[in-house]
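target protein:
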Amino acid sequence: MPKKPTTTKEAMIDGAFRLIREQGHEALTVRNLASFLGCSTQPIMYQFPDTEILKDLTYQKADAFHSEYILTAGDLLEIGIRYIRFAEEEPQLFRFLFQSGRFSGLSLEDLIRAPEAADVLAAVRTEEDLTTEEAAAFFEPLVAVVHGYASLIANNGMIYDPDTIRRALLMIAEGIERGRKQNDEAVSKE
């Protein structure tokens, strides 16, 4: 009877998640994961003959972790703040999720409409009482600013200052809302 595997597929994904969280996505190799888990490379290669599958499943786990982290916020401003704070608290995961080339070649609009952003876009629609198109237009400049702050912080280009960030996000959101109302008024006059 063959020996029962002691390192399960789920344990490998969890290990890959922890490895990336501690050492960054560049550290995710079969050899490094085996060492991290205290096993040989054989069970990993057996479960994941194509390491891209392991990376994709680990990405899904990290994305679910990130989504749960940011969506516990009560409103859109807090979602943005939590997104930025995630980059401060979990820089390795942030870089894996958003700076490892996964979205290479996509436009900002593509990113906003990606399945990974659906829950946040739904929160924008609900909170602001907007159509999907209006929510995407409202969300786009906020995404650029929030992601910019988060990227700077995750890469040690800026110190996390929640009060300054909160004030900046409020000013930007208010400006977007004013512009939206002015546009609505101009359209209704035509």
